Amino acid sequence: MTEIDHSTELILGTAQFQSGYGVVRDTEQAHQSDGVDILELAARLGIAALDTAPAYGRAEDTIGQSRCGLPVHTKLDPKRSPAESLSQSLKDLRRDRVDVLYIHDSAEVLRPESRVVASASELVGEQVGSLGASVYDLPEFEAAVDDPRIGVVQVPLNLFDRRLTRDLIASAASTGTIVYVRSVLLQGILAADPLELVGPTLPLRPYVVAFAELAQRAGRTRRDLAIGWVKAISGIRGMLVGAESVIQLREMVASFNSPPLDDDLIAELEALPYPPAAQCDPRSWTIVTSP
Known about the structure:
By secondary structure, the protein is α/β, with parallel strands linked by helices. 43% of the residues are buried. Helix 7 links the parallel strand 7 and strand 8. It is built from 11 helices and 10 strands.
């Protein structure tokens, strides 16, 4: 059985446990496995932690039912006070503690007198290991890094969305902030059939085609290259990946453990054209479900 290379942490995201998540989905594979199956395999493969949220349908409850012993990172429910949200999450997770509690409303980190940040920071201790911020934009990232109450920042980063530069990551790491990155496959787009990209994601098609051509020349899968490119960036503690099935989870782990990319291949990847940042924001997309 292939196990994780622990030089960088691999975190299993559980947003896929809710129905309809993702811009490109394989519904046939999604029906082959339920969340408990995926969680049991994650524990056997050496996944470092689970990333979840009250907003992810019944994902927290699924983790609790599974009795999976992996560390858990969860998020605040914006509809509840931080204390109420944590209490409900611990109940659903069947846990006494979470390792990271993220502020899910990223705009809160931009408010100097945010009551949410202040209240959430008071929860760190016996029930919460570290306060984190799940952010989207660079001003949010920088504000979170500058806030001494926030010890963990989660931010999107992938071959198409390069707003988070190596210098920014290095600067954050130098302050002791732990940086996790998500969306390394851009909700599956980097590994998708370009013909599946329609509607709001159609402008990404030529970039995916160019990426696919490079992967073919290199004799590597696009998933290998996308994960390998992120993994080669110094200062990142770990990356989140999602899986709709045990098959996909095995594929993700295999790509994570594939041979590292050499400098020439990384240079080729970084020389690829990439889209404007606005086109890489999943919040602006309409979900497309594969037949």
